[in-house]
């Protein structure tokens, strides 16, 4: 994140109060301008938190950082003996020992959230979290200074780093909560202490860690345990599993969706079209919304954001202005038109069965009878159901009428088999590496073709988007 000079300062006592740590060296009178974990970007006025990550251990950089002018760090108790604390004591360097530096980072973020006196919206769900979070921000920011993540900062490192960017000027923060195991959302919600909690939907994602879709529902519901007293729960009335949660809640529940039981309702304007328009029906007024983003599933995200605006007392016009100002988030249904007339849909940021199916449907709507091509990569973290779910996606591509299917990754043959089983001609299926797919695409693609590129983040399919886009713009 870019350095913010208006952050709330940290005294050593603040850090000790937040983390329950022990002062190993340095003075309690020292103050820090901010908190950081990246040795490449931290400044001399910041407190360094030595995170032990999968690839790097921040403790390995601690001595060099102190020698370069950083004046304090938070370190793990079991690493203190490896650090030159005696020398640091003589130099006046602040060193605070904690049991777990990742947890300490979260504890400091929770402390900062409380002292900043902001209100928090927290969003989770199997699909649509990031776009919903961005739409909510677009609505709230029309009236209030709003903090949001600069990137997909939705885990036990990213979410605290976002909350540590709060300034006295902020009034709201919109947080995205991701997870791949039980207890993760509970911890994230504990850190951000939401005033509003939103669950967009429940689908087959992260099954490797959660076992089943019921496990996904259980994990997502952890958010609802941590909403502040007097807060509100916002749920998707069109999703059967989120709707099941509504009667169990003590807090007020606001429902959004296209169905009759929704409080904040969307009304379709006819057949699917490239202009994503709908009627937003609030309890007391209706207004037309023209989204600047494709995919009818984006309407559900917009309704969730509209529910937040309604709860805050925004008018229909204010909600409309916010929603229509929303631009697609990078890697999420970004439609690119090239100089040769080729259309590329970049949906490479992530993938699960629900978002894959929605993207295929959107491709066919946008292609509107023109040739539709899909480049499909693996959907990760699906556990024992991975094979059957990839097979279904191949079948979905064939049934929806995709004309040519490219598949790459460990499940590429499974996707192809699914398409073959639903009648796609073998001559229209290509299995290979990204490089091989890119080469074949360059031979096959023509003006007016529509290409959807989608797979899980780990597949890095943005390379295909980048190279095809560059080729098509020559």
Description:
It is built from 18 helices and 22 strands. β20 (about 405), α16 and β21 form a beta-alpha-beta unit. A nine-stranded mixed sheet has the order 9-10-8-11-12-13-14-15-16, sandwiched between helices. The relative contact order is 0.08. It has helices at about 10-20, 60-65, 85-90, 100-115, 130-140, 160-165, 185-190, 205-210, 215-220, 220-225, 240-245, 295-310, 315-325, 355-365, 385-400, 410-420, 435-445, 460-470, and strands at about 10, 20-25, 30, 35, 45-50, 70-75, 95-100, 120-125, 145, 170-175, 195-200, 230-235, 250-255, 265-270, 275-280, 285-290, 335, 345, 370-375, 405, 430, 450-455. The radius of gyration is 24 Å and the shape is globular. With about 475 residues, the chain is α/β, with parallel strands linked by helices. The chain has three domains: about 10-100, MurE/MurF, N-terminal domain (Udp-n-acetylmuramoylalanyl-d-glutamate--2,6- Diaminopimelate Ligase, Chain: A, domain 1); about 115-325, Mur-like, catalytic domain (UDP-N-acetylmuramoyl-L-alanine:D-glutamate ligase, 3-Layer(aba) Sandwich); about 335-470, Protein-Tyrosine Phosphatase, Chain A.
């Amino acid at each position: 994140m870019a350095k913010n000079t208006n952050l709330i300062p940290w005294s050593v006592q603040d850090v000790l109060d937040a983390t329950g740590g022990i002062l190993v060296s340095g003075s309690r009178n020292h103050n820090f301008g901010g908190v950081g974990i990246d040795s490449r970007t931290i400044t001399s006025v910041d407190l360094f938190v030595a995170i032990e990550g999968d690839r790097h251990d921040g403790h390995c950089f601690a001595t060099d950082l102190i020698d370069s002018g950083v004046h304090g760090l938070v370190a793990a108790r079991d690493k203190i003996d490896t650090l030159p604390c005696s020398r640091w004591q003589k130099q006046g360097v602040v060193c605070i020992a904690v049991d777990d530096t990742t947890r300490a980072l979260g504890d400091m973020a929770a402390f900062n959230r409380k002292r900043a006196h902001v209100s928090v919206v927290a969003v989770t769900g199997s699909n649509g979290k990031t776009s919903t979070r961005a739409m909510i921000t677009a609505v709230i920011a029309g009236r209030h200074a709003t903090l949001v993540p600069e990137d997909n900062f939705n885990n036990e490192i990213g979410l605290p780093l976002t909350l540590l960017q709060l300034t006295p000027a902020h009034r709201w923060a919109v947080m995205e909560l991701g997870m791949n195991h039980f207890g993760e959302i509970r911890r994230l919600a504990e850190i951000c202490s939401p005033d509003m909690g939103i669950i967009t939907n429940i689908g087959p994602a992260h099954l490797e860690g959660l076992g089943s879709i019921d496990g996904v529902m259980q994990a997502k519901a952890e958010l609802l345990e941590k909403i502040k007293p007097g807060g509100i729960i916002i749920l998707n009335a069109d999703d059967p599993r989120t709707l099941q949660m509504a009667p169990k809640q003590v807090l007020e529940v606001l429902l959004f969706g296209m169905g009759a039981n929704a409080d904040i309702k969307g009304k379709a304007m006819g057949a699917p079209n490239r202009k994503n328009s709908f009627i937003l029906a609030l309890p007391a007024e209706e207004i037309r919304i023209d989204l600047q983003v494709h995919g009818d599933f984006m309407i559900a995200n917009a309704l969730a954001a509209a529910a937040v605006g309604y709860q805050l007392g925004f008018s229909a016009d204010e909600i409309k202005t916010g929603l229509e100002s929303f631009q697609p988030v990078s890697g999420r249904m970004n439609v690119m038109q090239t100089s040769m007339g080729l259309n590329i849909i970049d949906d490479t940021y992530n993938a699960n069965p629900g978002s894959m199916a929605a993207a295929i449907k959107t491709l066919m709507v946008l292609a509107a009878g023109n040739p539709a091509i899909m480049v499909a990569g693996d959907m990760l973290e699906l556990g024992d159901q991975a094979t059957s779910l990839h097979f279904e996606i191949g079948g979905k591509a064939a049934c929806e009428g995709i004309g040519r299917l490219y598949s790459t990754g460990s499940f590429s043959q499974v996707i192809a088999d699914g398409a073959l089983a639903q009648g796609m001609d073998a001559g229209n299926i290509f299995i290979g590496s990204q490089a091989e797919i890119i080469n074949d695409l360059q031979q096959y693609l023509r003006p007016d073709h529509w290409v959807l590129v989608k797979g899980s983040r780990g597949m890095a399919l943005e390379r295909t988007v980048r190279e095809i886009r560059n080729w098509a713009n020559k």
